[in-house]
Design a protein that fits this description.
By secondary structure, this protein is an alpha/beta fold. Helix content is 33%, strand content 17%. The protein starts with 21 loop residues before the first helix and ends in a 10-residue tail after the last strand.
Length: 149
Amino acid sequence: MAGGGGDIEYDQPALNNDINVVPMCDVMLVLLIIFMIVTPTLLQGFQATLPVGDNLLERAEDDTRVVVGIDVEGNWYFNKRPIERDQMLPTLTQAFADRPEDKVLYLKAHYEIAYREVMYMMDIGRDAGALVLASVSESKTPDDDGGLF
């Protein structure tokens, strides 16, 4: 009579060797939903391969800049948002009116875009009140053409 239990026998519950996959499925579904929501926001903006320049200074992206982009298909963007061509002039005019101390227009254009498109965008920028036009390009890596010099 060790343990004071008398002679009553208790049934042991059977051990379950199987893996419970229900919590794993729940976690996977939650991750799937998160990725479905986050992925489109990561792809916002436009896709353009910028021209390559020599001896460029690295500058960080700044969300307060007035940036205009033209992608490979000729679509126009204002601060990473698609915009119609006829809306670019009033939008830029308003952007420069809101910031009288900074009238710099940053232009990002795909390197295969026809130059007339870039010139047309420059004319719109000038008409909107931009005093300086900065063309954004990629810097050369040291591996290009055997070096920078």
